[in-house]
Amino acid sequence: MNTMPFEPYHPGADPEEAARRFYEVQRQRRSVREFSTRPVPRGVIEWCVRAAGSAPSGANKQPWRFVCVSDRALKGRIREAAEAEEREFYARRATPEWLADLAPLGTDPSKPFLEAAPWLIVVFKLARTDEGGHVYYLNESVGIATGMLIAAIHHAGLVTLTHTPSPMGFLHTVLDRPEHERPFLLLPVGYPAEGCRVPAIGRKPLGEIAVFHEG
Questions:
Q1: CA distances, 110 to each of 85, 106, 145, 165 (Å)
Q2: Over the stretch 137-158, which tens digit does the pLDDT of each residue have?
Q3: CATH classification for the domain delimited by 33-194, as one of 3.30.310.50, 3.30.420.140, 3.40.109.10, 3.40.120.10
Q4: Predicted model pTM
């Protein structure tokens, strides 16, 4: 028997226009590696995290933790540990094909944005609830929340980068997180640096990413 209380839901008035406006904003989003040191108020980050926390999740377990770091010393420790893993990646772990795919982007083991960006948001996934209970569709739930976080950051007029040093176990250690929290993604967040440049890339058109079956 259903024991959860329910409440009325009121959708928006013009879905197509709202969807178009959202697209027009989001299509300008780019991954940025050159950050300004201009401060970003904590309140902005809080609102972005609240947006991420509104994401759907398996059985509403909300299996995520967003660890937000502005402390300069702690960011320095994260950069040091991340670059150690990145050097291993570029020297030994990455396949030749992977390195070839990365080459046009100009990436390398140096990650100065981890200190330049005023905030780092480290997304952790919870292997169980804080009370020890089960979680469901863990990666799907945290992935959706992370996507919403990225959209919120862009909507706020800030930029970010999905940084995934591999392996990411050092984040668990450096940030002193409990055993049931597992690193999922690292997002530097801030304003783009003066004169920031990004690769001139394109997006696949709708016809290549969508299939419609209409009756």
A1: 11, 11, 28, 11
A2: 999 999 999 999 999 999 999 9
A3: 3.40.109.10
A4: 0.92
